[in-house]
Amino acid sequence: MTDITKIAEIVDEAARTATEIPQFSDDKPLSVDEAYAVQALSMQRRYARGEKRVGIKMGLTSRAKQVQVGVDDVLWGRLTDGMREEEGGEVSMAKYVHPRVEPEIAFLMKKPLSGDVSALEAMAAVEAIAPALEIIDSRYKAFKFDVGDVIADNSSSSGFLIGNWHAPDMDISNLGMVLSINGTPGEIGSTAAILGDPVRSLVSAARMVASAGEVLNAGDIVLAGGATAAIPMAAGQSVTLEVQNMGSMAFNVVE
Questions:
Q1: Neighbouring residues of 78: CB distance < 8 A, sequence distance ≥ 6
Q2: What is the Cα–Cα distance from 71 to 36, expressed in whole angstroms?
């Protein structure tokens, strides 16, 4: 029998101490249900240390990525206040193992949302939208893992930064995004890469939190998923994201 509690302790300690761990799939792959149970228990450990859940992140929000890892649905993970980094500030490599940064869209909820909802219902619960950057970090050796490993490790969610908030009636279905490192474009893409429209990711988020008995609460942040490939981070980088009609945001990477 899989020891969910022990695995949760291992992934939590790996995240807390920024330490590599072996893939669980090398021994006995976790099912999706087992992996989400591990994630929930590992996050309970963080909450017990004083962190608060402030939202969720969506992952595998492009069909290509789903096919690549052999799944037919998006993934999700929890965000805590301890994961938030300051926009325009410095992000330390010491907190992470294999950090990578990717451009996203963030939703700020103004009222609760959960279960099967339409795009219109989902957006009616949104206070504002913003450009965002997510720092994903797999604690697994060599940045290799299967889908169970990823979900158990909080779907690689490790850090996030939020840009300026905008009114929720802005059309975000196909906005250009440029992620630059030290002034040189590294990834160029569109919000359309997020399930064809980031709003679909919010709809999926409502459904997936409900499956875990949770709700998107007023004040929660929802990260819609990466719009481009993620770029490995390194000390000395200046990371900038420019989003069409939404402005820019940035941070510097330090040791």
A1: 39, 43, 53, 55, 56, 57, 154, 157
A2: 15
Question: Hey, what's the torsion of the CAs at 86, 174, 109, 156, to 10 degrees?
Answer: -50
Query: How many angstroms separate the Cα of 41 from the Cα of each of 6, 16, 17, 68, 84?
Result: 10, 14, 17, 27, 21
Give the DSSP letter of residue 143.
G
Beta-bridge mates of residue 218: none
Euclidean distance between CA atoms 177 and 186, whole angstroms: 11
DSSP string, 94-119: GG-SS-EEEEEEEEEESS-B-SS--H
Rg over alpha carbons for the chain, rounded to the nearest Å, is 17
**Residues forming a β-bridge with 248:** 242
Give the span between the Cα atoms of 205 and 217, in whole angstroms: 12
Q: Is 54 within 8 Å of 81 (Cβ atoms)?
A: yes
In tens digits, the chain (255 residues) has pLDDT values of 579 999 999 999 999 999 999 999 998 999 999 999 999 999 999 999 999 999 999 998 877 676 766 677 899 999 999 999 999 999 999 999 999 999 999 999 999 999 999 999 999 999 999 999 999 998 999 888 888 999 999 999 999 999 999 999 999 999 999 999 999 999 999 999 999 999 999 999 999 999 999 999 999 999 999 999 899 999 999 999 999 999 999 999 999
Query: Please, which residues have CB within 8 angstroms of residue 58's CB and are 6 or more apart in sequence?
Result: 74, 75, 76, 201, 204, 205, 222, 223, 224, 225
